[in-house]
Amino acid sequence: MIRRLASAALLVAVAAGAGAAEYVRLPGGDLRSVLPPDGRSADAKVAPFALRTLPVTNGEFRQFLAAHPEWRRDRVAAVFADSSYLAGWNAADAPGEARPDQPVTQVSWFAAEAYCESEHARLPTWHEWEFAAAADETRPDARDDPAWRERILSWYAHPTGIALPPVGHTPKNHYGVYDLHGVVWEWVEDFAGLMISADNRNQGDPDLLKFCGAGALSTQDRENYAVLMRVAMLSSLTAQQSTRNLGFRCARDDSKASP
Description:
Structural class: alpha/beta
Largest sheet: 3 strands, antiparallel
Order of helices and strands: HEEEEHHHHEEEHEE
CATH topology: paralog of FGE (formylglycine-generating enzyme)
Helix content: 25-40%
CATH class: Alpha Beta
CATH architecture: Alpha-Beta Complex
Number of strands: 9
Shape: globular
Strand content: 5-15%
């Protein structure tokens, strides 16, 4: 009981922006990715890394703006954020009606990366995010379970105008990470390389790997529709853009995994 109460208190503190954010280590390994690194079927190699257990909240981002006012919406350079940046806040430095424990959204990739740097971290790569998001509450990879996939897809059927829940809304997964599904979409470090080709005639074309470093890949596991929707959405954005359902969390290399 004491342990459960302590855990709940920690989640409340992190959501409100008080104290250090919690990171957990993930072991990494071979990942059957929807975006295989060779454009065909090779597993992605994910090195051990640490991931924030919760998305960044309004309360935490407000504290970041107080320390780094150059990222306020009335001061940020246009090259780093478009006109929708923090548009839901009623002031340049205050979220207004948005609760401090709700995930911050309408944040550009540049601002998300700057926030993570302030925590001596970075945005997760796509393969790191996908590795973590493949887990359910008890299994490191639940993607072959039709019932689990259906549960994830049900979130996408919700109207986009409903209020966001507080962070920690969903059960923690096998690794101790919350809200990878069911709350907000999330930025990843290499979002600009997530280019999909669904045309089978492109399979095996070596020129596919010349776009965005290694980005124009053909998707595997097409039944995992929810994850493919994320890829499509992220690949449609520029780093300056933001949306009201797009948030972020941070990651660390394993050598820098301590909070």
